[in-house]
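dude i think i finally got it to work??
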Amino acid sequence: MREDFLQAYSEFFTSIEGAFQFDAALLFMAYNQLINSQGISGDALEIGVRQGLSSIAVAALRGTGRRCFAVDLFADLQSENISRSGVGDKAAFIGNMSAFYENTDFVHIISSNSLALKPSDLGSEFSFCHIDGGHSDPETYHDLELCYQILMPGGLLAVDDYFNPSFPGVCEGAVRFMLEYPGALTPVAIGFNKVLLCKPPPSFSLNAMFANIFSYIPRDIATLWGIPVNLFWSRLQYFFDLSRSTPGCLVRGSNTNLRAVYEPQTCDLRAKANEVVQLPVKVTNNSTTPFQCGEHTFGLSYHLLSEHGVRLKRDNARHFFKEQLKPGEKRIVELSILAPEETGNYLVEIDIVWEGVTWFKDKGNPTSIVNLAVF
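look at this
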């Protein structure tokens, strides 16, 4: 494995076809790090490899000296791709794996429909499996049953597209497996188009361990199959130092360099009580971190102050960035301001919030003030 694995892998994403997300790889690595600490380490399996975008990460989750199995129909067997869930390219797969692993002898390529595979074809010492092959009910059910049988106790299993409305068969097959094998697999996490399951271990709670080791990662709690799971919505890559991290040991990054400049396009606002007015603000990203886009990420917002600067309301409506704002970039953002119920003079203190993590003001970044007259 190359020394700059994670940094290089993150930069490699735009050159490989596939829908796999880098943050899903980090999610896999974080939980794999936890089971490794409990002595659970074995072979790895991926069903549905396409060009190897996710396989590069899955191969890194295998134990020392262990194997990685890659199963795909590839181009020759597309007549069996009943759910039309992607076309694999064996030559591209081998080339992409070779870019990250000097010796790929540990990779066992199986050009086959996973429906034809039996546990005896693979073994029984797997610690990580990733199901991203056929997306129909019978294919998903079979792949879950297969992986359950080959996983070690405490091993992890990731399922792709569980909540994707384009492939309802994935959810159907997974629920059918859950009903026919109650308690066989325990859901632990949801995020980045993946559901992560664990073959019940003898004594430890993965999410309790996650909360202890990765306490700085924002997450919510959801319920799947009647079990509380971690729900991840904020991109993970900004919480780790990729240059110092390895797939087996993720190192916390620093977000103390969060910096932005706010330039409101007017210094004075007037509004009726309870009226919403728009304030155009030019935002410049002076951080080394891109402001990620989407709900529950980076949002322009404000704190409502009295005319004397006393804070009246800290949390107000957010305008989450719809497109990533890279370091050095500028953008005009329309910020919605809700006027208070009582007439009078107020101050609007403009700030950015990294949802679930911090306000930029709390990291020492200067805010910007606009006068608000309510009549």
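The first strand starts at residue 43 and ends at 47.
im so relieved honestly
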